[in-house]
Amino acid sequence: MMIMQRLYINRKFNNNNIDNMRSLFVSSILLFLNIILFSCEKEPIPSDPIAINNIKSSSINYTSSIIQFSLTGNANKAGVMYGTEKGLSNAQIQYAEKANGEISVSLNGLEQGKEYFYKVFAEDKKGNQMFGEIKNFITLSPSVKTGDATGITTETAILSLSFEGTNLSEVGILYSTDELCKDNLQTVSNISPSGNNFSFEVKELDSGTTYYYKAYAKYKNGTIHYGEIKSFQTNEQYLKVSTTTIKAPAEGGTFQFEIEAKNIDWEISCDQDWCTIDIQSGNDNKGINILVQENVLGSKRYANIKIQYLDKIESITLEQAENLNPEGQFTLSSLASCVEPEGDQSCYFTITANSSWTVTSDQDWCKIQTPTGRGNSIIYYEIAPNNSSKCRIAKITIKDQTGTRQHLVVQDMKNNPIGGYVCGVSAGTYISRMGMDILCPGFWTASINDTTWCKLENESGYSGDHCYITLDYNYTSRDKIAILTIKYDQYISYRIIVNYKIKESSQTKIPQIPMIEVEGGSFLLNNEKLVTLDSYYIGKYEVTQKQWFDVMGKKSSEFQGDDLPIEMISWNDAQEFIDKLNNLTDKKYRLPTEAEWEYAARGGNKSKGYAYSGSNAFKDVGWPVVKAQTTVFVGQKQPNELGIYDMTGNVGEFCSDWYSSPLIISNTHNPQGPSTGTEKVVKGWGWGGITTRSSFNPNGIYSNSVGFRLVLDK
Question: Which of 311, 541, 543, 659 could form a disulfide with 695 if both were Cys (CB 3.0 to 4.6 A apart)?
């Protein structure tokens, strides 16, 4: 501070003008100096100096830091100069909000992982500045970490990363089969990252392959940080088949091959239904069994077995040898018959064939009446009386260009002491067990010639004891025949057992069912009740085995042939067929009522009053019945007045009515039987005339001589 002085002026007046002038000049100068001094006294120089202390950086983050210091004295401004150069050239300035006391200055927008230099300053009102020493700090460095691979399969994996830092614009994984992770790089990324942890699924990888990968993080300023390189191996995946060819003999059998597989799904298929594969799919090592049916053909045959996996296929060729004694590719309605000791001059069975054929017998007592023929036909033979004390068997051989088949004829002896209907034939498709009472005066023994599929439960017994036989279902390509021999003393009886091959299909077809219109009218039902019927349609033929197979997908009859009537079914089975047929055709087929059946059998309003359906002579419209009867092709005899076939003979036919005796009907117009009952009406059976009635339990009672035909309302 400057010391002010006051000056007092004594004015002297004299007459000396020169002196007066000099005094006036000096006074003016002194006055001017005093004015200046008084002006300076209004803005005094501060008395407290500025002091800066306790300078430090704190709260250092990735892009920010806080500079703290204390300030004393009368500073006007305070702040921080900072930059990335030590000399702080081109430094930035951040002012503090106050200029005294404890001061904190936030520095933001810094670069990550960067060294910064700074110094604090204070400035008085005159602009004089005081600086602290230059110090430094380093912002936190961003980091990215490559995570471990998880969820590894044959073609996918989960790769992860974590990072520390801010201002992120993209994260991702680089991966390749190059261990330096440079060549053939592929990328999975996230360009809108949020959070600090990320996972990526990589797909379409090669199995059993080592992959290298590293994480990366890209920041908004364009810099990229990488994690360490890691590796993983996809699960190994392969499939091997133990062989490419299998050779099977004509008799067939079970054959095996091995699949060695790892981490791969596979499926097996075969293009031939005579090969059955026990395992159709899997994903690991398996031994596969192939059941090969007997080859009944006179030529080799082949099956192609495919093992499919991913988009690849492994193939096995199965070659089966030809049968040196091939089974003919034609169908016989029955493979065995039983004849009484007295013999028979009109025995027969049918053949369904596409070519010419010949027939021979190995016994003189069995004479063939139809030695040659072509296509579908009826083969007749004659059996002479048996006057011996033994049952006997003849072998009829049928041969065409495809091979041979046989029909066995067993003839009983007179006064056979081995009773209980032992001598005869048992035939069917779905038979698992059969039995019979053996009636004889003493001890008997039993044996069978083929125990591979037909086994005796008991091989001996006394009169009245049962002889039981168990059978395997026949899933082969050949019908099977066995001969059961029963011995008592010197007497011998035979029973032929036929086990037809099972034929099934999952495919359904709509069969052709010809119908005949029956105009309504009145007649005497059962020759005792006058009734009236509306018009309707009725089947021209009995339902055939082919029609049954098309709808039901399996065969059920004892006698074999597409155009033979279906039999060995229950009334309920017929209803199931009708339900399925109606679903396939969107029609409303049903069984005829007894009145509808009889009216159609009489010839409707064209009736000529015949005893049988279409004739007074049974032989014109029906087939004679022998003990070991067989059905025949539908439509072979002459039709009745309406053009309907086989309403007399061939098979009896189910009606919808409950059976009652005497006849009970609900009313006289479109009559039906009783509302309840235990058995259903069967008409047209055997030698009976048009009015002959019989009955069957609808639940699971089967006969080889009962079938049905269909009706449609008009």
Answer: 659
